[in-house]
Amino acid sequence: MDASPSPAAAPPTPGPPPAPGTAPAPGPRPAHDGPQPSGPQGAPGGRLPAPGPPAGHRGPFPPVFPPAPVPASRLRRIAGPAGVMAGILGAFAFVGSVDPNEPGHYPVCPLLRFTGIYCPGCGGLRSAHAVAHGDIAAAFGSNALAVIGYGIFAVLWVLWMVRAAAGKPTRIVLKPIHWWGIGAVLMIFTIVRNLPFGSALAP
């Protein structure tokens, strides 16, 4: 038995023309055989999903920019210089209670022991002992350069403490010329205190 061919689909009948001044009616949407395109995270039609909290999130969103750091309190800012000064005072208290003028309390300078030459630090402990007891003249007689160093440190420490209390950083940068100058002063001091005319600088 022969199958008769199905009749062809009749073309759509055009509707009446639109009235003047009106937009034409939209035509039928074409059918798609395949699946609809999807955008990021499976959003239909390639559109980005609306922003919202992640799954399982409760509460407001975290801020886009982190909050400004809370400034440290004044007590915390001065903790550094106060700790350094506490260590220095502890060292002076120990040297002041254990007399370096008595033998056996501290090791002997190896340069003085084997060569008989005073190094720049010889007499430093005795000068610290004299400073701890308030005898500045004896401290200069033991090691004048060490006493000058104590004074420079005291000035720098006061500057550090004042700036730390005001919340300002303190930074001291020594250039190569400064190191060369310090080395030259130490060398001249060492040479002079070992010569006969510089015996006043010897401990």
From TrEMBL:
The keyword Transmembrane applies. Residues 1-66 are annotated as: Disordered. The chain crosses the membrane at residues 78-98, 136-160, 172-192. Residues 8-29, 50-66 have a biased composition (Pro residues). Keywords: Membrane, Transmembrane, Transmembrane helix. This is DUF2752 domain-containing protein. InterPro entries: DUF2752. Residues 34-49 have a biased composition (Low complexity).
